[in-house]
Amino acid sequence: MFYRLYDIFTEHPLDLIAESISIFPLIVGVVRYRSLRKGVKFLILFFFIIIVRDFTSNLYAVRKVNNLFLYNLSAFFEVISVCLLFRFEITKKSTKKFVDYGALITVLLCVFFWRSNELSAGILTSSRLYELLVVLFYFRQLIEDMNVKDILKHSLFWISSGLILQFTGTFFVYLFANYALSINTESGLFNLYWNMNQIMYITFALFSSIGLWVSKYDKNNFL
Amino acid sequence: MKLYIAVGTAVLLVMAIFIIVFVAYYQQKQIRQQLILKEWQEKYRKGLLAATLQAQEHERRRIAQDLHDEIGTMLSVTKLSLNQLGRTVEHNDPSSTVLVQKTRSLLDETIANVRRISRDLVPTTLERFGLVSALEELAEKASNGEVHVELSCSDKLPPLMPQLDLTLFRIAQELINNAIKHANAQHIIIDLHCQPNGILLSVIDDGQGFDLDEIMKDRKRGLGLRNIESRLNVIDGHVTFDVEEGRGSRIHIQVKNLKPEVEVEVEPV
Ligand SMILES: Nc1ncnc2c1ncn2[C@@H]1O[C@H](COP(=O)(O)OP(=O)(O)OP(=O)(O)O)[C@@H](O)[C@H]1O
Ligand SMILES: [Mg+2]
Questions:
Q1: E runs forming strands in chain A
Q2: In terms of domains, do B72 and B137 share one?
Q3: Among A180, B50, B59, B133, which one is most buried in terms of CB atoms within 10 A?
Q4: Is domain A2-220 classified as CATH 1.10.287?
Q5: What is the pLDDT of residues B168-218, one digit of tens each?
Q6: Ligand 1 pocket check for B253: Cβ under 6 Å
Q7: What PROSITE patterns has UniProt attached to this entry (chain B) (predicted)?
Q8: Residues B30 and B113 in one domain
Q9: Do A143 and B23 touch (CB under 8 A)?
Q10: Hey, are the CB atoms on A168 and B9 less than 8 Å from each other?
Q11: Distance from CA of B23 to the nearest CA of A (A)
């Protein structure tokens, strides 16, 4: 079994990095747990889910079972996490409503687009779109409210930046998942897109780690 | 298709980076301006407060001077003529002597009161002999059969910043007044302590204490504690209320004393 795993990781070295990097924000989050803002605490849960997902997906890969549905499944958790992450931070009532109902609608859409044997472009795109909008709303609020003293020490700024980079970097790949990441895609191309996906995830995990790390400044960083 | 994905991703990524940099840059720039404005407002507010307090002291000094110079003088003159009147009356109508004597003692009492009030309005001892002497005098005056006020000052005070001694004195005055008026205390300790570049003044009583949150919520409460806060605001001081219902109160005042002052200006009354 380990030989098989070894084979997979030597074939896709980026996967090894991407899958182990999740430990990073998880540890930082646990270390900083007491200074985390309410919503940010859900980020730890999110990374935990990712770790579980990657572990399960490796297990399936070793057993040569199709594991792509796990990524569809994790999009659900992603939507819910992003909703929980931002809904406590957003002050405007109407935007908060959008965040809440948007999450609900996106989850329903994801159910509608469900695929159990391949990556679903519908799920991945709609979830990304929702998350992108939420982050943009949050950025707008940051600029409008002007209540963060030093934005480089603001945990949610880093997390949002990581999210937005990940979404934009993978949006087109997911939009054309039927072409780019399907079972029929030739393996060289598949690997290219998959690696892109992993690189963006690594970026997100690193940005999140920074965000979780600077959360200790959050308490005194508001006007 | 490959091209679409590559170009689309590149465009989106560039946009994302642009948005992030823009948000960070714009936010930082605006906030800097806002902080400067806030600082400025704070400074202005403090200046206003300081001016108000100073005006108050000026007014007190003026009233004290008027009382002393005008009413006091008039009363002295009145006493003089009463004495003359007394001598005349003693000759002609000995039965009125008692009345004259009564008037004289009333007049004496009034003169003493005017002197006391004008002296209380302006802390002369503070200006002449410094904070420790003034607090000693305050403790002595406040002590009587029921209350014992004690000053404990461990070390020699460094030269104080202007206004600092007056602020500390007024605060001590109010705290002792409170302890006598509200706490039913029997023993009050004024503790003056030097700290590295600061002074710690504590007023400790053994009275009944009070619930600070409740007092702070009360809209109709007195001005004493509020005045203490605004006085401290001007000189960047801190007050800590170590209070609780059912036990004596401990109130600590912490002030910075960075620039040593040269000489206290003496303005006689
Ligand atoms: N040392 C103390 N012990 C018990 N209660 C106190 C003490 N100091 C203050 N208090 C309570 O706090 C309240 C507010 O005090 P504060 O000095 O602000 O107003 P005041 O003394 O009632 O009026 P003023 O000081 O304006 O003459 C008092 O009414 C009293 O109930
Ligand atoms: Mg009072």
A1: none
A2: no
A3: A180
A4: no
A5: 999 999 999 999 999 888 999 999 988 888 899 999 999 999 998 888 888
A6: no
A7: HIS_KIN
A8: yes
A9: yes
A10: yes
A11: 7
